[in-house]
Structure formats: structure tokens, C-alpha cells
Specification:
The protein is of the alpha/beta class. It has one domain (about 15-175): Thiolase/Chalcone synthase (Peroxisomal Thiolase, Chain A, domain 1, 3-Layer(aba) Sandwich). About 25% of the residues lie in helices and about 25% in strands. The strands form two sheets. It has a six-stranded mixed beta sheet with strand order 1-8-7-2-3-5. It has a two-stranded antiparallel sheet with strand order 4-6. Helix 2 links the parallel strand 2 and strand 3. Helix 1 (about 40-50) packs parallel to helix 2. It is globular, with a radius of gyration of 16 Å. The mean pLDDT is about 90.
């Protein structure tokens, strides 16, 4: 996600990642409460993967929004479980909201930037302060305790907002 000018400062810069698919949906369940089955995360993730020409099994990692609220995390995990059904392996996953706090409308952009930089650097950071994952996270390899070195090619990045807004992006390692 790096613009490459033909000449001058930044010429020949290496791209950390490329955005290959994205989607934004709004299920409008409630002004602040998430839809309990994770419909927004599921639909946005599915559309982003379709637009990038990928299947869930093609992913190397997942960047969750991770609200750190019981209702928000349960809803996101339900949508992700539906999205990843049939993948057959735990998918490495992280969330950085515990490090950044509530960024409101900037959450998606910051999560996408973190994912692109970490994809290029070859690691997934640990989920801050995660000791015991909640039920529903069994299909994910949530990163705990320290960063996970990962020679990944592509991540799916999920983000959520008030009013049922959800967004997803597929980022692939640049060259």
C-alpha cells in the first residue's frame, strides 16, 4: 500500500501490501448493539473474498476488529465461524483494538494499515491482554503472548462500526 513515484523521493519504494478486494455492508440491526450472529462480518468478508477471487482457505491470517466487548466479540466470532466453515485448519488471527483503543471512524483505516505493515514484515502481533479466548474462537489460532512470525501471502481484515456497519479488505503481500 505504497504509492511508487517514477522519480524523486520514494522512487522505487517497496510495496508492503496490495489491496485486492474489499466490501462494506450495513445490516442496521441496532444503533449500537451488534447483530448477534455476525451477519455484517460474514457478508463483508464473503464479498471481499469474492472480489479478490479467493476462497477462505486461501487466507494465511485474519485481522479481527476485536471490540473486547462480550456482545461484539461473540457476534464477530459467529460471523467468522460461518465465513471460515470448511477451511479445516485454525487460521492465525489477531486484533489490535486493545492497543489502540476506540478510534471510531478511523478504526478500519488503522487496522488495514497495521495489517499491511505486518504482512510486509512477516508477523502477526499478539492480541493484547488475551489470556483465555471465548467460546467460538476454536477455529482461530488467536495469537497470544508474543508476535507470531508468519510467512503469509494474504490477510483478511475485518472492521465494525456503530449502526451495523462492517467492512472487510483482503491485503496481499507486495513486492
Amino acid at each position: 500500500m505504497c504509492w511508487r513515484p517514477a522519480s524523486g523521493p520514494g522512487a522505487g519504494a517497496r510495496r508492503s501490501a496490495l489491496l485486492t478486494g474489499g466490501a462494506q455492508v450495513c445490516e442496521a440491526h441496532d444503533p449500537v448493539a451488534p447483530e448477534p450472529h455476525g451477519e455484517g462480518a460474514y457478508l463483508a468478508g464473503r464479498l471481499a473474498l469474492e472480489r479478490s477471487g479467493l476462497a477462505p482457505a486461501d487466507l494465511d491470517g485474519l485481522w479481527l476488529h476485536g471490540t473486547a466487548t462480550r456482545a461484539g466479540d461473540q457476534a464477530e466470532l459467529a460471523g467468522v465461524a460461518r465465513l471460515l466453515a470448511g477451511v479445516g485448519r485454525p487460521l492465525p488471527a489477531t486484533a489490535t483494538k486493545g492497543l489502540t483503543g476506540h478510534l471510531l471512524g478511523a478504526s478500519g483505516a488503522v487496522e488495514l494499515a497495521f495489517a499491511a505493515l505486518c504482512l510486509g514484515a512477516g508477523f502477526l502481533p499478539a492480541v493484547a491482554n488475551l489470556e483465555t479466548p471465548m467460546a467460538g474462537a476454536s477455529g482461530l489460532g488467536l495469537v497470544r503472548g508474543g508476535a507470531l512470525g508468519l510467512a503469509a501471502r494474504r490477510f483478511l481484515v475485518l472492521s465494525a462500526g456503530f449502526g451495523g456497519h462492517a467492512a472487510a479488505a483482503v491485503v496481499e503481500r507486495g513486492g
